Amino acid sequence: MGEAKRRHATGGSGPGRQGQQHKQALLWSGALLAVLALGGLAVYLATPGSGPAIALPEVPAGTPPFPAELDSYGVQLGDPDAPVVVREFADYQCPACASFARVHERFKTEYIDTGKARLVFFELPLAQHRNAMPAAQAARCAGDQGEYWGMHDLLFAHQSRWSTERDPLASFNGYADQLKLNQGRFERCLTREQRREEVEASLSISRQLRVASTPTVLVDNIPLSSPGWEQLSGVIERQLDAQ
What is the mean pLDDT of each run of 10 residues along the chain (243 residues)? Predict the structure, then answer.
């Protein structure tokens, strides 16, 4: 059953379901660890001419669905009732996350804009990346003015510049200027850390789910073992075919 159908069947989240949130997260995090441990068995390099270079990842029968109640802690893009949900846990200072971000435009064009999938993006600023937390806050502050995804794209596109700066505020202000944001409002939001709580909540959910590496990308409840366009589009298409 796809996630959209499951939401309609269960009635979605509500006050009576919120008490189950922590229990569901723990159950699903255990399943995620098991799936990732088995991930190497689901991926193989094919001999030349024998087929696809990477097999599509599978999850064991009975793997619980992702606890959709947690999506509210991430930043969402696309139709809430899209049949497939892609969830990404990422660090703005992570080079591999910047590499995966290059597929976002195609993903948006082919799947989000067509209503086939939606994206839930969870910020997961890692402790070893000192500018990851302020970068995530910069994106949230831009989101206050309707430009979360514009800032998201600029942060990843220029990651090599601001990630090495002692104080990246000037760079973030420059990106805000490119996006034609109200500079005073943006800078106040960032310097006063007005959106830190939201980023901390996203980080807390990631830890609760035991997501420890970035990027971690899931299509519904299926973690990609090699995040990239081939696996992303392949698993989405398989999930759509199963609707």
Answer: 54 46 54 49 36 73 90 97 98 98 97 98 97 98 98 98 96 98 97 98 94 95 94 97 91
Residues 2 and 243: beta-carbon distance below 8 Å: yes
Q: Say how far apart CA 36 and CA 217 lie, in whole Å.
A: 11
**Which of 59, 123, 35 shows the shortest CA–CA distance to 87?**
123
184-188 long-range Cβ contacts below 8 angstroms, 24+ apart = 185/144, 185/145, 186/141, 186/142, 186/144, 186/145
Main-chain phi, psi angles of 117, to 5 degrees: -150, 160
The span from the CA of 39 to the CA of 9, in Å, is 30
Instruction: State whether residue 194 is helix, strand or coil.
Output: coil
CA distance 196 to 202: 10
pTM (2 decimals)? 0.83
| C-alpha radius of gyration, the chain, whole number | 18
Query: Buried (b) or exposed (e) across 81-109, using 16+ Cβ within 10 A?
Result: ebbbbbbbbbbbbbeebbebbebbeebbe
Query: Which tokens go with 227?
Result: 């995040």
